[in-house]
Structure formats: C-alpha cells, structure tokens
Amino acid sequence: MRKLAVLVVFLLALGGCDANTPLFEVKAVAAGVPSLAPFFAEDSGLGRDARVRSRPVPGGLQRGDTPGLYGGTEQPKICDVEQLKRFLTAPRNAGKARAWATALELRTDQIPGYLDRLTPVLLRHDTLALNHDYKKGKAVPFRALLQAGIAVLVDEKGLPSVKCSCGNPLRPFEGDTSRISVTFEDGNEKWQGYDRSEVVVVRPASRELERIALVDVEDAERGIQRPVGTTGEADSDFDATERRAVPRLAGTTFAEASRRLADAGLAVAYGGEGLPPDRARVVSTEPGAGAELPFGAYVTVRVATTPPALPAPPAGSGTPTSAGPTGVRPTEAGPSGGATSGGQTNGGPTSQEPPSQRPRSSTAPSSSGPSSSTAAPPGSGPPGSGSPASGSPATSAAPPRSSAPPATTSSPPTDTGTDTPPRATGEPPRTSSPPPQTTSSPPRTTSPPPQTTGSPPQTTSSPPPVTTAPVSSATP
Q: Tell me: the pLDDT tens digits for 61-99?
C-alpha cells in the first residue's frame, strides 16, 4: 500500500509538471545591478539607469511606437552612443565587435551606421527581451526580464536593441509570456512592485519612426518628443496632460488605426495570443470617436475576422456557386452589433478593393490574419449529395421525366460557359423546325442550365448572419 501511495503521488506530480510545461526560464536583471559577463564594464560610463516604478498596462504585447511606452529625463545623456561606437571599432575589441554584430545579425563594418540610427530611452515597464552575455569570445543569449528604469537603445521601429550600461545586444523575446519562470539571483533581488501579469513584450511598429514620444520619468506631466537617432540634444517638450480626441477608426485596418492613435498620442489595447493582423478591419473602438483622453491613454480596438475562402471554380467554367455574395463577410462587429452584409461594418468597408474592382466570383478573398471557423454555406455539399458542388454545373441526382419533348427555338443556344460532351453521331442537330415526334418516353432532361459568366452569381439564400466577438483588452 505504501508503494502504491508513493506511485500515485509521483504520477500526480508528473501530471502537474506536464500541465505547466514548457516553462521559459527568465533571469531577472535589476536596474543599476552590474552584469556578471558584460560586453563592457558597467563602470565605463556607457549608460546610467534610473529609478522608475513599473506601470501596469492593458496588454503585455506593445508596439514600439506606443506613446509613453518609454521615458526620458531632462538629463539626455543616459546612453553614450559615441563612446560605445569607439569601443566597438577599436582594434583591441575586434573579437567583441564580431560577437556583438553577430548577435544583431550585422557585419562589423555596419556597426557605426547602425548605432547612429538608435535612440536612448528609459524603460517604463518591466520588459522581456533576449539579452546576451559575452563568454569565451561569443555572445551567449539568455531570456531576461529588464526592470523598469534600465536605459536602452531602441531602433527605428522602437525595439530595444542595446542595454546601455554594459553594451549588451538585445533581441525581441520569443515565447509564451504566460509560461515564464523568473529567477532572481546574482544580486538581482525581487524588486518592489514586481508583478508578472504586468510584464511587457515589445513588438516592432508597423512603420519606421521619425520621433518617439516619451514621458519624463521625474515629471509625468512633461512629454518629450525625441527625433530618432538623436541622444536628447534635439528634444522638444509638450504638455502630457493635454487631452486628445479619439480619431474615427471604423473601417480602417488595424495597422492604420494603430498609426492614427499613435499620431494622436494614444495607445492601442488588444488581447489574445498575438497582435491582430495588420489588415484586419476595425469595426469599433472603446471609447468611441471623439472621446477626449490624456496622453498615452489606451483605446480598445475591436477588429473583424473573415471566414475561410472557398475553393475557386475551375478556369473557364464560369459556373457560380451558392456560397453567397462576393466580398468578405465580417464575423465581428462593434458593441452595438452594427455589422451588415455586403462588405460593410459600422460604416466601414471590409475589403480594401472598391466594389467595381472585386472579381465576380463566389470565393471569399483570404485574409492575412487567422479566420474563424464557420459552418458550410447553404447550398454547398459534397459531390453526389444532391447539392451543387463548387466549380461544376449544378445537376440533379435523379432528374424527373419531362412531360413534353425539349423545346427548340431559332435563337442560338445559351452559352453555359462549361465544357459539354460532343453529340452522338446519330443524334440529329438542333434546328428551327419543330422537333420530331417521339414514340417512346421523352428523353431525360437536366435542371435549368447555369447562367452565363456575364451574369451576377445567384445565391440560394441570403448570407448567414454575422457574429460579433470584440478583441479583448485583457493582456497576458
């Protein structure tokens, strides 16, 4: 019995481990604490960290152009970029330069130009990144949690690229942020205010930035506009307390909505496993257009998804299917449920093409983002089921006998746009004269021929109703 009890406990523990794996081991890196194996000594004057309390955000994934994501101070020299450039181009540091460049996928001759495009900022959130130690002539990567207040250099899309105090190269964190195990050791004690649910991962902005909107970490009412590639000498101030109106975003793409909000000094809130696709259509925002918010406030964006595209009909068949009208059908809408058919949601189009340029086919164009599962459209079905199959003429499984011989006219036969089998040699051609009398049962006839390719496709029913599911503002 004792052995059996031990075995049960072991199996339960094993099952619990499986439920929690894989866990990503992450090393905590506190502000002001020297690294054990830095590229350059922490006391060499390359950068200075600050004391900043991490701020909660409604979304663990943040784009690099999010207003207020980073901070600054009135003392601009938080990173000495020119000194780092001299270190990496000095002949005595050629080995470090090669390892440093390799970690960032650069050539050593590209280092000076790359550093000239970076911008020094202070982290305002505990941020996950892929850090690098320098060991035995190589850059050794490790997952790190950088404490708010650490000075970093960011690239043109707002991604942390260098830890200023020691010159360690940084890359974006890859992995499930909800499956991390943070270890605090080597002098990096757990800092006050640490909350794993508020950890941030930075993703690149959808465009190259010209300037970065910062918040003064010592005076939250002061905003700082810092041109990209400058170290603070060209900063300009703005009032961070001034309220900004939410722009009208319904009908735009998610990428365009993000840019407009950033230009207005507002941030995007979203949830899920990753960012919505850039081409996803925005159907509503919360709060709505016209609402006034302070700088850096978050606006929840709801986007529409599309059903999976149906297979295209064979070339030259010109046969419509019964899947519904052309164009993308949204499956999400705003809070009021204002989704409509025909390619419109809340007043915004669901396709980037104007109606006059959309192909006249019943296949729905594929979306760049993930598609939601939908039931099979009415009228479609597997071959032989009695429903017309996509891409082939609709025929009846058991056509009825006609009560009269097929009528013929003097007008030319309708072009069905499909390939038809040749007539048998014994079958008389169609003429304008009356058909011959039949002495036996009349021949079988098929269902009415499909319409010509020039006519709009017919549908067997109206398109299915649209469902709504707003993008959550909850974040890992």
A: 899 999 999 999 877 678 999 999 999 999 999 999 999
Residue 74, strand partner residues: none
Closest CA relative to residue 47, chosen from 63, 57, 35:
35
Cβ neighbors of 183 (< 8 A, separation 6 or more) are 25, 26, 27, 28
Task: Read off the pLDDT of residues 196-231 as tens digits, 9 standing for 90 and up.
Answer: 888 999 999 989 999 999 999 999 999 999 999 999
What's at 81, amino acid-wise?
V
Give the CA distances from residue 280 to residues 136, 255, 341, in Å, rounded to whole numbers and listed in that order: 46, 8, 17
Assigned token pair, 32? 């002001």
C-alpha gyration radius of the chain: 32
Distance (Å, whole) CA 252 – CA 206: 14
- Beta-bridge mates of residue 348: 345
3-state DSSP assignment of residue 211: strand
8-state DSSP, 156: T
Other C-beta atoms lying within 10 Å of the C-beta of residue 83: 15
DSSP code string of 5-43: HHHHHHHHHHHHHHHHPSPEEEEEE-TTPPPSS-SS-GG
What's 396's DSSP letter?
A: -
pLDDT tens, position by position, 389-429: 333 333 334 444 444 444 444 444 444 433 444 444 444 44
- 103 Cβ contact partners less than 8 Å away, ≥ 6 residues apart: 132, 139, 141, 169, 171
Question: What does 100-123 look like in DSSP terms, one character per residue?
Answer: HHHHTT--GGGHHHHHHT-EEEEE
132: amino acid identity, one letter: H
Hey, how many other C-beta atoms are within 10 angstroms of the C-beta on 284?
Answer: 26
Which residue has 């365009």 as its token pair?
Answer: 256
**The residue type at 469:** A
Cis preceding-peptide flag for 58 (omega within 30 of 0): no
Q: What's this model's pTM, rounded to 2 decimal places?
A: 0.62
Cβ(282)–Cβ(302) below 8 Å: yes
What 8-state DSSP symbol labels residue 328? P
149: left (phi over 0), alpha (psi -120 to 50) or beta: left
CA distance 112 to 114: 5
Average pLDDT of the residues of the chain? 72
Residues 6+ apart with CB under 8 A from 7: none
Q: Return d(Cα 137, Cα 375) in angstroms, integer.
A: 57
> Which residues are 401's β-sheet partners?
444
**How far is residue 301 CA from its own chain's centroid?**
13
